[in-house]
Design a protein that fits this description.
Layout: H1 19-25, H2 35-38, E1 61-66, E2 93-95, E3 102-104, H3 108-111, E4 117-123, H4 130-139, H5 160-167, E5 177-180, E6 185-186, E7 188-189, E8 205-206, H6 229-246, H7 253-256, H8 258-269, H9 272-277, H10 285-291, H11 295-309, E9 313-317, H12 343-367, E10 374-379, E11 383-384, E12 396-397, E13 401-406, E14 414-416, E15 418-419, E16 426-428, H13 433-443, E17 451-453, E18 459-461
Parallel strand pairs: 1-9, 1-10, 4-14, 5-8, 5-9
Antiparallel strand pairs: 2-3, 4-13, 6-7, 10-13, 11-12, 15-16, 17-18
Helix pairs in contact: 6-8, 11-12
Length: 473
């Protein structure tokens, strides 16, 4: 399969209403919550452009496991044991359940579930900085510049989950898009984690609490002890009166949506289904141990609970940062160590954590009959250089890397595309992040060429990529 060249476009800067000012005018102070901003049901009719049709996709939900920092493909899932010294990994390979497929020796549990996984080994782009490459990975749209200073602004494209909320929102008052347990950043907040020009009503519910903490709960969904639901409803009525008096509906479409923000927030706060979905104490202790008593492990368990309850799109971030000089925390960016090696941290932290969570998540979804309807995506912003540097490490390499799909209509035990003999460039079936995005949308039943409007109601396709037909079952 050869992909067509991708279309590129620009998005104008929407002159959005100052949200803080709008909330102040609307009397939001009594809430003391971030929910109205993060989880509001947008005024979907304002300026909307219908899609070109939605087919029934095999995936009802997506769990997007984002590996911030850029995992080394040639030390994990696309190893080159026959490459010369200075390129081949310091790790050995082991067989998997897929005949002929070998992966890193430090992923033995993952090897046992590779028959559930589709490896895409030929993903490629040119963004070498974490923020720009991550924006590309989190939205499927190439950034305007490859710059570490790329900032999170409303002129950029929305996150995948925000698009899902626009076209296939969850039902029953559930949030469509949830992200946790971090807001990621490399210096500044990494763009691509929210709805941007699509509108604040499609922002994710951001859960900044650690699911591994004994007292994990959602303060965003809890009323202060001094406020009863009846009292909150009375205050909501007063806020509606203030809105009418201030004629907020004349300000902008964003202001017109604020009323729905409060209604959705109140509904969530009183929803027993939401509370149950986030109650990890309801899980057997043995299963919690299987996922691992780590922030990432319990986040993966929480992701399973959320898609089981009907949440459409869940972002789980491996780490809040790209990584640093630590052997027990941080993301996959390991080339910053001074006069030491990347391999100890890979062996002591990233690979064991991956091997303790990914296979358990896939097996748990499968045992509950959820894997066929849940697409699990495991990916970072780029791979790592085939050539090992002077610090016995690898540097940023976007020109070829590996992405994992599992479930949700993707082929099982399958390898799509191939890298060359050193893992430097695609040799077969080059794929761009745009194509990964188009394929995710298609599996969710969203037309990849569906359109969303900017502030001037000019249409923009949610993806300029091509569906990777070869990975679809």
């Amino acid at each position: 399969m050869t992909n067509n060249s991708l279309r590129r476009g620009t998005v104008p800067l929407p002159d959005l209403l100052n949200r803080r000012r709008a909330l102040s005018l609307g009397g939001a102070g009594f809430l003391g919550l971030s929910m109205p901003r993060l989880l509001a049901a947008a005024d979907r009719s304002a300026g909307s452009i219908p899609s070109r049709g939605r087919a029934a996709g095999p995936a009802k939900s997506v769990i997007f496991l984002y590996q911030f920092g850029g995992p080394s493909h040639v030390d994990t899932f696309d190893m080159k044991p026959d490459a010369p010294e200075g390129i081949r990994s310091h790790f050995g390979t082991i067989p998997t359940r897929v005949p002929g497929l070998r992966i890193c020796e430090h992923l033995p549990r993952t090897a046992e579930v590779m028959d559930k996984v589709c490896l895409i080994r030929s993903v490629s782009h040119t963004m070498k900085n974490h923020n720009s490459a991550s924006y590309y990975a989190l939205t499927g749209h190439e950034p305007p510049t490859d710059d570490i200073r790329l900032r999170d602004t409303i002129d950029l494209y929305p996150a995948y989950g925000s698009v899902a909320d626009r076209f296939v929102p969850s039902s029953g008052g559930l949030p469509s898009f949830v992200s946790f347990p971090h807001v990621i950043r490399d210096g500044s907040i990494t763009p691509g984690q929210r709805a941007s020009f699509l509108g604040a009503g499609h922002d994710p519910l951001v859960v900044a609490s650690d699911p591994n903490e004994p007292d994990f709960h959602l303060p965003e969904l809890t009323l202060p002890e001094t406020i009863t639901p009846d009292r909150m409803a009375d205050r909501r009525a007063m806020q509606s009166l203030i809105d009418r008096q201030l004629r907020m509906h004349e300000f902008s479409p964003q202001a017109r949506g604020l009323s729905a923000y409060y209604d959705k927030a109140l509904g969530l706060m009183q929803s027993s289904e939401i509370r149950r979905a986030f109650d990890l104490s309801d899980e057997p202790a043995a299963l919690r141990e299987r996922y691992g008593r780590t922030t990432y492990g319990q986040s993966c368990l929480l992701a399973r609970r959320l898609v089981e309850s009907g949440v459409r799109f869940v972002n789980v971030y491996f780490s809040p940062n790209i990584g640093g000089q630590s052997f027990s925390s941080g993301g996959w960016d390991t080339h910053g160590f001074n006069n030491t090696r990347q391999y100890p941290i890979l062996k002591s932290w990233q690979l064991p954590l991956t091997d303790h969570t990914l296979p358990v998540l896939l097996e748990d979804l499968e045992s509950r009959g959820l894997l066929d309807s849940t697409l699990v995506v495991w990916m970072g912003e780029f791979g790592r250089t085939p050539k090992i540097n002077d610090n016995i490490s690898r540097d940023h390499w976007p020109h070829c890397y590996t992405v994992l799909f599992a479930g949700g209509g993707a082929k099982r035990g399958y390898q799509f595309g191939a890298s060359d003999e050193s893992g430097a460039y695609p040799e077969l079936d080059k794929v761009r992040p745009d194509d990964v995005a188009a394929t995710m949308f298609a599996l969710l039943g969203i037309d990849p060429h569906a359109q969303i409007p900017d502030r001037l109601k000019r249409p923009h396709a949610i993806s300029s990529g091509q569906v990777i037909e070869g990975v679809m079952a």
